[in-house]
Write a structure and sequence with these properties.
Helix content of chain A: 55-70%
Largest sheet of chain B: none
Number of strands of chain A: 0
Structural class of chain B: mainly alpha
Number of helices of chain B: 8
Helix content of chain B: over 70%
Largest interface: A-B, 84 and 79 residues
Oligomer: heterodimer
Shape of chain B: elongated
Strand content of chain B: under 5%
Radius of gyration of chain B: 24 Å
Chain lengths: 376, 195
């Protein structure tokens, strides 16, 4: 009978309840509901299986429309269960229709809560057994689904208690998978506070490791304070670089108006991009054509040796500057390649011996804004 | 976070759109104004290309605090603008119950009485964490580990921004140079001929 609960959850639960109510205590209120009673009812009413199936057939596909189903089911109900239904009154059904949703919701939530508490109790009882461990392990794995998961730390100490109680003497320190398994190590405190602390510390140290790889020159430093110092300096220098570059861009005047439609092939932003669709701003192509042609011809005329360079020479100036060329121009392989492009470009221009509009000739990959400020 | 091609693509596109929206090249602006407009569109492009993260929301919230930026932001972001601003404010601090804070401080203080060695290190780290919170946009409302997460993300995006702007700069300057050289050649020819 239990298997029937799943497909007919909304209706059968309520109907089972109603049946029970009418069967056992005619005076009982509809809203008083115990899932166990319903189960018991359902189990005891074995011959009713066929009736339930008929009900389900009656209701058809409209299980969402509770009201219609109630009435429809009531009819089927009456056909199948003449004894019980005779005692049921129509107004009861009408009232039940409105109560149905709330009671079903309440019942489902209460039942789920009860099931959860049961699980917790069961796991706590079987802490010594393998079942409990598997349960709690599973729960832990479900919770800790990765490095950045916002795990409910409050729950963990409770589970850790039962784990640590038996595992406090274990020598197993290495984690079994990539998840952060927290077991109280030998000779360490086992109270929930310190365990939660340890989890937090491990998380932070892992993030610090990532940052260490990211920030240049951080590999020698081991302390948290020192590394934070380096990170702060790096972030500040990057922000200053952005300021400085925006200043330089402002100095390049007039700027080229690049015809974006043709640049990006007129297609939308690809769906892998995280941002939502951005409103395309209308562009006047009048004044743009001239500068656009210049840009195109630039690509064509620019005599660069290597093909890696920023502006490819093989683009037909008459053809639209396709997004692939620009995309490859801005060379996707990583920032280091952009830097080498930069150096190549400067190299060529120095060879040209033009009166450079570039006052800063010592530009390397990482601009040092301090030096540049001095030159200014 | 990985700096993917899609991200760079979106970033560049957004930035160029932003340049056009604020019309940096056509309008006659002062130098400072133009620089601010460029920086604004670069920052917004970075935030939009990255998507929805704590620091991006903090960044946009911080930018929209100034009145002059708001019209631009509204233009670029469209209907996302309002939804972005609502849940998170950059200066929102984690609400803490005073009683609980006091209790935990007392516990910490008692522990510290026994263990004096870590105090100096802890204060240093605390100071630096505060500093980092100020640097990363939207940082004040983050706790230790998520702050590091956001810093990681932010650093990657900043790097991509710097690279992108550098390459844009070289492109523009090279093209400008090209146009200069084109103009000069006929002059020289003319002077040659006249001689």
């Amino acid at each position: 009978m239990q298997c029937l609960r799943a497909p007919l959850s909304d209706l059968s639960a309520l109907e089972g309840q109603r049946a029970c109510a009418e069967w056992q205590q005619p005076g009982q209120e509809q809203s008083d509901y115990h899932p166990y009673d319903a189960d018991y009812c359902m189990q005891s009413l074995c011959p009713v299986e066929t009736a339930f199936r008929a009900l389900h057939g009656c209701n058809g596909g409209g299980e969402n429309e509770n009201h219609g189903n109630v009435h429809g089911s009531n009819d089927c109900f009456s056909n199948a269960w003449p004894d019980i239904v005779s005692s049921m009154h129509c107004p009861v059904v009408g009232a039940a229709a409105s109560v149905e949703e709330t009671s079903v919701n309440a019942s489902s939530s209460s039942s789920s809560r009860k099931r959860k508490s049961e699980n917790n109790r069961r796991s706590k009882e079987n802490s010594g057994g393998s079942d409990g461990k598997d349960d709690s392990n599973c729960k832990r794995i479900k919770e800790e689904t990765g490095v950045g998961a916002a795990t409910p730390e409050a729950k963990r100490p409770n589970k850790r208690k039962e784990e640590s109680a038996d595992a406090s003497k274990e020598n197993d320190k290495a984690p079994k998978s990539d998840y952060i398994h927290v077991r109280a190590r030998r000779g360490q405190a086992t109270d929930s506070h310190s365990l939660a602390e340890r989890v937090r510390r491990e998380r932070i140290s892992q993030r610090m490791k990532y940052l260490q790889d990211l920030v240049p020159g951080c590999s020698k430093i081991t302390g948290k304070a020192g590394m934070l110092d380096e990170i702060i300096n790096y972030v500040q220098s990057l922000q200053r670089q952005v300021e400085f570059l925006s200043m330089k861009l402002a100095a390049v005047n007039p700027m080229m108006d690049i015809n974006i439609d043709s640049l990006f092939g007129g297609r939308e932003i690809n769906p892998t991009c995280k941002s939502a669709s951005i409103p395309m701003i209308g562009m006047s192509s009048g004044a743009i054509d001239q500068s656009y042609l210049q840009f195109g011809s630039l690509q064509h005329d620019m005599f660069m040796g290597s093909s890696d360079l920023l502006l490819r020479p093989n683009v037909n100036p008459a053809a639209a500057v396709s997004d692939t060329s620009l995309g490859s121009c801005l060379n996707v392989n990583g920032s280091s390649v952009w830097n080498t492009n930069l150096q190549n470009v400067y190299g060529v221009e120095f060879q040209l011996g033009r009166g450079t509009a570039l006052p800063f000739q010592s530009l390397q990959g990482n601009l040092l804004p301090n030096n540049l400020k001095m030159e200014m | 976070m990985q700096v993917t091609e899609a991200f760079k693509h979106a970033f560049l596109k957004q930035m160029l759109l932003g340049f056009q929206a604020s019309a940096v090249s056509t309008k006659s602006m002062g130098f400072q104004e133009r620089k601010n407009a460029i920086k604004l569109s670069a920052d917004v492009a970075m935030a939009v290309a990255r998507g929805s993260r704590k620091w991006t929301r903090g960044l946009i919230a911080g930018l929209s605090e100034e009145r002059q930026n708001r019209s631009f932001l509204r233009l670029i972001l469209g209907e996302q603008y309002e939804s972005l601003l609502k849940p998170c404010h950059s200066s929102w601090k984690i609400p803490r119950c005073k009683k609980i804070v006091r209790r935990s401080l007392r516990v910490c203080w008692r522990k510290q009485k026994k263990n004096q060695s870590g105090v100096l290190a802890r204060t240093l780290v605390e100071k630096r964490t505060q500093e980092l919170k100020r640097l990363v946009p939207g940082g004040e409302s983050m706790d230790g580990s998520s702050l590091l997460d956001e810093t990681l993300d932010y650093v990657l995006s900043l790097r991509a921004q710097v690279d992108l702007m550098q390459s844009l700069l070289t492109t523009f300057e090279a093209s400008k140079l090209r146009s200069h050289s084109k103009r000069r050649l006929p002059e020289r020819k003319a002077s040659y001929v006249s001689k």
